[in-house]
Structure of Ion_trans domain-containing protein:
Amino acid sequence: MATNKEKSLQTREHPPRGSIDIVALMDSVVDVIFFADILLNFHTTFVGPGGECSKFTHTVVRLIRLANIYANIYFQVVIEPAIIRCNYFKSWFLIDLLSCLPYDIFYMFKHDDESESLHLQRIGSLLSALKVVRLLRLGRVARKLDNYLEYGAATLLLLLCAYVLVAHWLACVWFSIGEYEVKLRLIFFEIISALYFTMSCLSTVGFGNIASTTDNEKVFGVCMMIIAALLYAAIFGHMTTIIQQMTSATIRLNIDKYHDMIANVREFIKLQEVPNELAERVMDYVVSTWAMTKGIDTSKVLGYCPKDMKADICVHLNRKVFNEHACFRLASDGCLRQIAIHLEVHLLNLFL
């Protein structure tokens, strides 16, 4: 059986001369897609300095419409090509470039020198792992799922995707371990087997592939299971408490408040049969407002402050309006303070 495994691994690592590895070909197709994504990012607008990219034209249009609402808090869509390129060069360009280079080309054809071929393939596998770094960009997709799915459904979908992804990574590690052990077997691995047995018992999993056979082993196994039950309850009970303490109660309250608000708006739209175009505008406004204010009522906070302090805060909040419009440049500080107190944000008609 070991000989057959060895032959299969050799066939996978070194396909017959002139043949093409289908897996490597699929990886090359992914590289082409990644390269196309780089080209698209050079022409993709983003919201504000360091904001998130939006590759859909209708989303950009809606954000542009909403930009006028938040002029006093620097909410705008950057459409200048030079700024877009500069922002991309400073953020994801290097990672995207390294992850799309065709490292898997080493797998496609057989080399005459077997040792050199194996060395190049291992280097290609190591460099191909850079593609995993691009998964960090999936966080933006996860944050947008709440706009289209219920909170529970979105969370369930993300957890399932994360579970499948981790299972895939662990399967790759498991395959690599089997491939390595076919070529090399040491006494040290017997100790690893013993450690595997104790850890499976301590974690209360107990797969059973390594089991107690003699009477002494069974007695030791019973003792270890008792110890494992106590350790499991003590350690993981404290870990749960620590994790709950790490998550601030204020943050949890804001998250619950946000999802309740989104659920109420979505239910209102469904109940009142609001047209799709108007419903999208409502959702865009609600989500964008929350993104800028984090659910904090500015008027309520200003109500805690005395009149002079309230005027200073209002001038600060509206400083962009005062600095960019000529009608306010000659106004005195006292005039600006009085004007700032009475400034309000209004949504302009889209056809104005």
In short: Residues 197 and 315 are 67 Å apart (CA to CA). Residues 298-352 form one domain. The first helix runs from residue 2 to 13. The first strand starts at residue 46 and ends at 47.
